[in-house]
Amino acid sequence: MNLNPDSQFSSEQLDLIADNLAQNGFIILKQALPEALLMQLKQRAQTFDAVHWKQAGIGRAQQFQRDENIRSDSIHWIDKEDPIERSFLTHMDSLRQGLNQRLFMGLFDYESHFAVYQSGQFYQKHIDALKGRSNRVLSTVLYLNQNWNCEDAGELLLYSPKDDQVLDKVSPSFGTLAIFLSEDFPHEVLPAKRERYSIAGWFRINNNQGGQVDPAH
Ligand code: OGA
Ligand code: MN
Fold it and tell me: Which of 1, 26, 96, 117 sees the fewest Cβ atoms within 10 Å?
């Protein structure tokens, strides 16, 4: 299966995403990426063995800690050295550019990781970026699970920034992409009944000081 090296979001998709982000702060897209790329990403995630999956933590750099009461998934940071992972980054960079053109968001870079949740694992309600404390501005979650049924559970719950009502209950189905403003939307991952793969990512603005790009995950 060959990957198109120029794979990118279409201008129709970018218009739709930009309109929804401007109006609602979030969007859930189905079949968001090319099937061939999704298949490669899924296969790539399945090739990692225990050594390549790291137990996920919370907080960045010095604040990093592990707490299995908050999240119990395992992660693998996406690396541009791998051709398949690079194709994903290239595709997501077209989203960065498209949103900067349409919404002047000043998105600077993108960090992302594969995540696997074994049956019963979860991520409690959280916000990806604390206001004014992080340079993560836009969150994305791409799902890689074929034939996901209602009974498999493992949904992403997205809560309203205003009143904490559930805005959306997203099934982690192959090709579904959730995009939301990182500082505004609490969300959680419900326990699944089977292995559940995703790629979570964050577009960041450049909070650099003295010309240094902030490198921490
Ligand atoms: C995260 C996250 C959601 C998911 O990693 O911060 O919220 O559905 N992931 O994998
Ligand atoms: Mn999150």
Answer: 1
